[in-house]
Amino acid sequence: MKILWGGATAASQYEGGFEEKKGLDTQDCRPYLPRTSNATEETRLLTKEKIEEAKKTNSNQYYPFRNGTKGYEHLEEDIEYLEELGLDIYRFSISWARLFPNGIDEAPSPEGVAYYDKVFELLVKKKIKIFLTLNHYALPINLVECYGGWKGRECIKYFLRFVHFVFERWGELVDYWLPFNEINAGYFSPFNGVGLLKGEDGYNLSEVFQALHHQFVASAKTIRLAKQMKLKGKFGSMIACFCYYPLTSNPEDNLKLLFEEQMNQWYCMDVLSKGEYPYYSSKFFESKNITLNITDEDKKVLKENTCDFVSISFYTSSVITVDEAEKTAGNLVVSTKNPYLKASEWGWQIDPVGLRTSLHRVYERYGKPVIVSENGLGARDVLTEEYKIHDSYRIDYMKAYYEQAQLALLDGVPLEAFIAWGIIDIVSAGSCEMDKRYGVIYVDADNYGNGSYKRYKKDSFYWYKEFIQRHKAGGIN
């Protein structure tokens, strides 16, 4: 078995093209804020007032996701780069608001359809496999205002209308399908994950978990629809994975780890992969006074339409303790600092062995093929006067993680694909900035959208290209 090596972008972070009759979505409303201790948090905990400010045509805020990295304009060039890299597979998402600007439209936007027709046409021509994310955080803002985001059951109906069109138009071209990106993020990042606005008293947990339930049902009904339409692609579910460690051998640290891991990491995948709510969720809901509306039909559709494969994003591991300890940042979460690991400038702890461990844990728990649908290093790259980017730090990161992924495959984990995140520089979903770059292809733009948006190959581009060539020739590198 060989791993498919790929790259990924997300519509909201990459496309831009906001003026091309695209509807306003939740990511379009997130402003760039200069980096402070709480800037990242402020940009993903939006209130009704902040949405109203974002809708103004004369707002003095810069909204970076409306530009992305102008993939809408550079599409053909970018896919040429993907072909030159030799990618086996490309993961991208469709913007719901580009196809259905209000989320509830009876018919899709012709401009949106034409754009995605071109995307699929080019990828098929280049013989690059397609991993399609149907919903990568961005939700039409009209659905937030009309139904409160995913806490409104109505979103299921409108999502399926969107999905049905995608299936009819491009369904035969897709190899891997993902209904929802990092679905567990709806718990710890409710605006990004489920489109909930922050109230004066924060978030109502019953609403958060009801919104997640509606996404579970929407995912299952998406799979059911695909079966009815006899689509060939495999359907997956995805979680942000954190590889939890106890800080000490104190049994209380390990017990706390168990409970944190259950709800933060496994809960959503337990439902989507096994088709029913896990035993531990009842006690959690009771302790938090969470009440949910779950119908018998919901239970049936969940049980009968589980995912074919499990995918994870993996960047960093997390440490758990009952005691006070130094903290550091992570993928939409905060963790205790691990004294054995180095970290990126943004505080994300680098742990390639944690990836191998997580791949084992995921396969052991679910018994289904696994895909690493996101992994990469967010770093500050420098474009030299000779238009070069010497990112040896990214090459070192990729080498370490890719080695552990291949070792997991040799261990017996059926790892089907490994997809590098932000293969082309994109706006960071965590901090809404360009300074934090992931790509092997550089985009000349700054945090305020200034720049030529020209593309340049980084040193890591040439390394990844050679790596893929070696892999195709001999399997394990």
Describe the structure.
By secondary structure, the protein is α/β, with parallel strands linked by helices. It has one domain: Glycosidases (TIM Barrel, Alpha-Beta Barrel). It has helices at residues 11-14, 39-42, 48-55, 71-85, 96-99, 110-125, 141-147, 154-170, 185-188, 190-194, 205-228, 251-274, 279-287, 296-304, 352-366, 392-411, 459-474, and strands at 4-8, 89-93, 129-135, 176-180, 234-241, 244-246, 309-314, 318-320, 327-329, 334-336, 370-374, 415-421, 441-443, 455-457. An 8-stranded parallel barrel has the order 1-2-3-4-5-7-11-12, surrounded by 5 helices. α11 (205-228) crosses α14 and α15 packs parallel to α16. The longest helix has 24 residues, at 205-228. It is globular, with a radius of gyration of 21 Å.
Strand content: 5-15%
Shape: globular
CATH topological fold name: TIM Barrel
Q: How many domain modules?
A: 1
The fourth-level CATH homologous superfamily is Glycosidases
Helical content stands at 40-55%
Q: pLDDT under 50 segments (min length 5)?
A: none
How many whole angstroms does the radius of gyration measure? Answer: 21 Å
Q: By helix and strand content, what is the structural category? A: alpha/beta
How many beta-strand elements? 14
Per CATH, the class reads Alpha Beta
Distance between the termini: 13 Å
Biggest sheet details: 8 strands, parallel, barrel
Produce a short descriptive summary.
The chain is α/β, with parallel strands linked by helices and 477 residues long. The chain has 17 helices and 14 strands. The strands form four sheets. Strands 1-2-3-4-5-7-11-12 form an eight-stranded parallel barrel, surrounded by five helices. A two-stranded parallel ribbon has the order 6-8.
